[in-house]
Design the sequence.
């Protein structure tokens, strides 16, 4: 998709807050509503308020409507604002709206809109470039997460990471199942051991010359989560290809950050495994020794993400010295979706300010985050009679928090304040399209964290 300064065949306009003058067409100007004039010369899309979320959704909607009405080009005036986030969102929306996952369809999606004409005297080159990088990373995440589990095995994910490392000049190290087994990553190893596709720990690093900060990202990469011996019911198993979204998100973030040449060092650690069943599967009643020596009683093999992440968090803290912040991304709990809904990411940690900055940044990029606060009563719920900790809580309530608290047991005291956990179980995968997200993987989190890191 190209942005040019010439005129387009149809004009598009984003109408903010109602539209009396279109009453005769029955267009009320409700948020997200579209009107194509009968002469096919003009298309309107309404938004309630000018913000990044609405603008991204509006331009995404314009692209979808143009395709539907078989137009080939369009001319549009960007919003009259100096707000960079809104302008980036404006351009990004077109590319997010043009996304269709057609890999497994005989009939491939058409992308008829090749040119968007921008009616403005202003120079948007830099903004457009950044929007392209961001949308490129979001759509990259969508493509990988949407791909079927038989294709994206842990080894395949490692190959994708290696390929990205090559093109973006990143350092990439891949550790196999033998490394995990021989080096005490027993929790991670156990989760993956039933599958014929063995686990991989993938470590990518982007190290610019004059880096101001060092950030570590850890992602849950369950290429498939069948639940293991605590098998998921059939209806809950469908969509579990998306359980790798945390890992793929950190891949998307490091991709975008390196393409924007931001001067911060980023490490992305992906814990890739398949939670499957076989005679060699790990079992409820097993006791696993994590890399930091803590013993974990397995009471439910479907609470596998936290086991993989526990060891990845240990790896990160052992291998990366003097980092400023550590974020983990995971489709960790159904409870988080119950708690905050499918559009919102649950954020946990011990440093309220850090969490607040994520929430505020999300408001600038159009992604929703909610703070879920730990308290002193929760930890007793993870007590085990036979090991240091149980992998599930004894209460039905507060499952997102107890999962987050479980992870905190693998954060060293000196790093407690540097760590933030992001449960993306809701927004990572879209079953009913919303906003600028089509069905399937959303690429949630990339935009907000690129903006956050840009602000450091
Ligand atoms: N991958 C799931 C969480 C999940 C559920 C993500 C639905 C996206 C949509 C995770 O591994 C899991 O199964 N968690 C269990 C934990 C329970 C056994 C304590 C859950 O949420 O039910
Ligand atoms: Zn699970
Ligand atoms: Zn899972």
Sequence:
């Amino acid at each position: 998709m190209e942005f040019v300064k010439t005129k387009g065949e149809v004009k598009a306009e984003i109408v903010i807050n109602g539209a009396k003058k279109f009453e005769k067409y029955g267009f009320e100007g409700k948020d997200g509503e579209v009107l194509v004039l009968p002469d096919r010369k003009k298309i309107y899309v309404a938004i309630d308020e000018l913000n990044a979320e609405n603008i991204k959704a509006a331009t995404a909607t314009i692209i979808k409507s143009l395709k539907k009405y078989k137009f080939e080009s369009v001319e549009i005036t960007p919003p009259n604002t100096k707000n960079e986030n809104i302008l980036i969102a404006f351009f990004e929306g077109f590319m997010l709206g043009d996304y269709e996952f057609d890999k497994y369809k005989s009939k491939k999606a058409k992308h008829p809109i090749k040119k968007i004409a921008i009616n403005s005297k202003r120079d948007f080159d830099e903004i457009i470039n950044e929007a392209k990088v961001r949308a490129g990373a979001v759509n990259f995440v969508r493509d990988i997460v949407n791909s079927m589990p038989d294709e994206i095995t842990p080894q395949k994910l490692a190959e994708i990471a290696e390929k990205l490392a090559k093109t973006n000049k990143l350092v990439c190290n891949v550790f196999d199942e033998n490394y995990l087994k021989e080096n005490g990553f027993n929790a991670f190893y156990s989760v993956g051991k039933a599958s014929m596709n063995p686990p991989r720990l993938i470590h990518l690093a982007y190290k610019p010359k004059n880096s101001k900060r060092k950030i570590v990202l850890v992602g849950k990469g369950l290429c498939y989560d069948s639940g293991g011996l605590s098998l998921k019911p059939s209806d809950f198993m469908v969509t579990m290809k998306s359980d790798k979204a945390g890992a793929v998100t950190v891949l998307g973030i490091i991709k975008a950050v390196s393409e924007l040449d931001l001067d911060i060092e980023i490490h992305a650690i992906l814990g890739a495994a398949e939670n499957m069943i076989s005679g060699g599967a790990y079992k409820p009643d097993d006791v696993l020794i994590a890399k930091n020596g803590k013993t974990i009683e397995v009471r439910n093999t479907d609470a596998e993400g936290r086991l993989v992440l526990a060891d990845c968090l240990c790896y990160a803290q052992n291998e990366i010295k003097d980092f400023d912040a550590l974020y983990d991304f995971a489709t960790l709990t159904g409870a988080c979706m119950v708690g905050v809904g499918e559009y919102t990411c649950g954020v946990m940690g011990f440093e309220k300010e850090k969490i607040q900055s994520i929430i505020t940044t999300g408001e600038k990029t159009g992604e929703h985050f909610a703070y879920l606060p730990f308290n002193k009563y929760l930890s007793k719920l993870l007590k085990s009679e036979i090991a240091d900790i149980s992998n599930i809580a004894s209460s039905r309530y507060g499952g997102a928090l107890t999962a987050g608290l479980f992870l905190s047991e693998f954060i060293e005291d000196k790093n407690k304040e540097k760590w933030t956990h992001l449960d993306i179980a809701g927004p990572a995968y879209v079953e009913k399209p919303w906003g600028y997200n089509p069905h399937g993987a959303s690429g949630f989190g990339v935009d907000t964290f690129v903006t956050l890191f840009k602000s450091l």
